[in-house]
Write a structure and sequence with these properties.
Blueprint lengths: L2 H5 E5 L2 H6 L8 H16 L4 E7 L2 E17 L5 H8 L10 E12 L8 H12 L11 E7 L2 H9 L3 E2 L4 H8 L9 E7 L1 H4 L3
Parallel strand pairs: 4-5
Antiparallel strand pairs: 1-2, 2-3, 3-4, 5-7, 6-7
Length: 199
């Protein structure tokens, strides 16, 4: 058992819930602003749904929050080596060009709950959601556009994610970015079949 399973309750992140809780602070101003101000509009525009866990011992504390949307991996646009990495366990590769995915648009843990393994538990929860028999749609991959910073990249790698493109230069070409500046984010993926059919 982990802290999320033992001591927290799962909720849809609504304006009423945000209003009833202490202000969520994950230490990243962009993410704070999204969860506090933009998540409702994002949901109303059918662009993504936000969820959170609340501490059962402090019902005003949002422990962590995340947003998910539908997405896909367009394998036909990947460089050959990366395409082979993504599709190596998919049958009938030639008949399909796009593979269903869920996009984690935002994900963060409150500063009050950092360094307790909650981020890993949250990712395990999200992954298990999409291989559950009750899932109503096909979903092969989890994808994320991770901040290109040490901590987020290390976090996603520790959760089993890999880069969709092996280099920033490949990703820039795919995204049609001409700048010599480093990428602000990196596309990463996790193949859910690894959980459904563990080797």
């Amino acid at each position: 058992m982990n802290f999320l399973e033992e001591s927290c309750t799962f909720y849809s992140l609504s304006p009423e819930l945000i209003e009833s809780c202490d202000q969520f602070d994950c230490g990243h101003s962009d993410l704070n602003e999204f969860f506090l101000k933009d998540a409702e509009n994002y949901a109303n525009q059918l662009l993504g749904k936000s969820y959170c866990f609340i501490d059962n011992n402090d019902l005003k504390s949002i422990v962590c929050a995340f947003t998910i949307s539908n997405d896909s991996i367009k394998a036909s646009l990947l460089p050959r080596g990366r395409k082979e990495k993504v599709t190596k366990q998919i049958p009938h590769v030639k008949s399909s060009k796009n593979y269903p995915a869920v996009l984690i648009g935002r994900l963060e843990v409150s500063t009050n709950y950092k360094n307790r393994g909650i981020g890993k538990s949250l990712m395990d929860f999200i992954k298990s959601w999409f291989i559950d028999a009750q899932n109503k749609t096909g979903c092969r991959f989890v994808v994320v556009d991770a901040y290109n910073e040490d901590l987020p990249i290390k976090y996603y790698i520790s959760c089993g994610f890999d880069f969709l493109f092996s280099t920033e230069e490949q990703e820039k070409r795919y995204s049609n970015i001409q700048s010599n500046d480093p990428l602000k984010t990196r596309l990463m993926f996790f193949d859910l079949i690894l959980l459904k059919n563990p080797s």
